[in-house]
Amino acid sequence: MKVLCLGGAGKISRESVYDLVEFSGFQRITIADCNEQAGRQVMPWLNDPRVDFKKVNVSDKDETVKLMRNYDIVMDGTPISLNYRSTACIAEAGVHGINLNGCSAEWDFNQQFKDKGKICVPGFGMTPGITNMMAKHVADQLDTVDTIRISHGAFRPLAFSPAIMETTNIEYDPDLPSRVVYEKGKFIQVPPFARPREIDLPQPFGTHTQYIIPHAETRTLATSLDNKGVRLIEVRGTWPPKNMELIRVLYDWGFMGNDKVKVGDVEVGIMDVITSYLIQAPEGQTTDLYGYALHVEVTGTKDGKNFQHILTNTHPPSDGSVKGWEKLRAYTRCVGIPMSIGTQMIAHGKAKGIGVVAPELVFNPSEVFTELEKRQIFVHEKINVL
Predict the structure, then answer these.
(1) H-run or E-run covering 99
(2) Looking at residue 77, what DSSP letter applies?
(3) What is the pLDDT along the chain (386 residues), one digit of tens a residue?
(4) Where would a tag sit more exposed on the chain, N or C end, judged by fewer CB atoms within 10 A?
(5) What is the rounded distance in angstroms from the CA atom of residue 346 to the CA atom of residue 185?
């Protein structure tokens, strides 16, 4: 089988490709990226004869679809702003697809994928993705589910790439309609920094105040677990404390709205200016602690008793003591590996359904956790009787 790794030269997606090289049996692994220089640099690092490079621009739909038709599956690591275009190309090409973010309008192409008998899985990184698996793992053990509270700590520099800074700006857009909670059968829009809650992340990350973020789990789990009687779904997140302090100040001062300001004779968005600075500044490229921490709390009933399940994860430290997990790679590997696992499971016929399907309805959580363990990412579960 052949896989096209769209955006595969990016700092996160190249980790997905690296995992394919290490663990998959794909006969051809093509990095497809608009940045030819980055793509050519990644190839010798991967050092595998199955890997080649194709320059592609998803804005050129005809050429992109033509390329995709030569493959069995597209592993899509493009940023949120491009996911609608990339998914449109995958659907028209008539091949399987999976992406990292799940925060665009992938669902618009549901019927098109169904008509082709193919599957598209939106959002299979750590969150959304592994968090969906954690919630489904618990829900399958319970008769009813009352609350689902998903939290994560993404310990990475604020602006180590343009795409990651784009994610920051989108998530804290004051008017973003997709920043919602699910409560008593309704989706309720909330502003940035809503519903603060102290979350105990696994060590070495510690306790942090987290706020509601606009991730896809809120909507997909409300639908896929509807038969469990879910009353509340909240998704929270945090970055390193210094990052959160900066974003809070930018939000409080109104900068996150990206209003236009005049600099000389030129009008520019204020956040566009700040973003450009952070991408170039050392402060935007480094942080004190690297990695990815998940915390999923689910409450519900089993045989008339009330239970609380708490799932967390651990991975090798970023201090250089484990080869391949140094500094930023402790973060990028955590995000990139799940998309590779999902890609391989689709290729092996271990994905359920056709059309655009939420991760928790596609994959068996236990199988995903087993694959994570092979990569030194471990899921831990604690069960309390309430």
Answers:
(1) strand 96-99
(2) -
(3) 999 999 999 999 999 999 999 999 999 999 999 999 999 899 999 999 999 999 999 999 999 999 999 999 999 999 998 999 999 999 999 999 999 999 889 999 999 999 999 999 999 999 999 999 999 999 999 999 999 999 999 999 999 998 899 888 889 999 999 999 999 999 999 999 999 999 999 999 999 999 999 999 999 999 999 999 999 999 999 999 999 999 999 999 999 999 999 988 999 999 999 999 999 999 999 999 999 999 999 999 999 999 999 999 999 999 999 999 999 999 999 999 999 999 999 999 999 999 999 999 999 999 999 999 999 999 999 999 99
(4) C
(5) 32
Q: Which of 259, 223, 30 is nearest to 136 (CA)?
A: 223
| Cα–Cα nearest to 342, from 2, 24, 21 | 24
Q: Are 170 and 82 in contact, with CB atoms under 8 Å apart?
A: no
* CB-neighbour burial class of residue 147 (10 A; exposed 0-12, middle 13-18, buried 19+): middle
Residue 84 in tokens:
């609608």
Q: Cα torsion for 79, 274, 15, 338, to the nearest 10°?
A: -60
Report yes or no: 172 and 213 within 8 Å, Cβ to Cβ.
no
* Domains observed in the chain: 2-121 (3.40.50.720), 130-331+376-385 (3.30.360.10)
Say if residue 385 is exposed, middle or buried (CB neighbours under 10 Å; 0-12, 13-18, 19+).
Answer: exposed
Neighbouring-strand partners of residue 2: 28
